[in-house]
Amino acid sequence: MNAGTGGSPISIGARERWTLRAAVPGDLDALKRVRDESARHACGAVYSPAQLAAWLARPLPAKMRALIDAACVLVAESDGEIIGYGAIDLATAEIEAVFVAPRAMGSGLGLRLLHQLEDIARAGDVRALSLSASLNAVPFYRRAGYVTTSLGRFPLDEHQFLEFERMEKRG
Question: Is residue 148 within 8 Å of 138, Cβ to Cβ?
Answer without folding.
Answer: yes
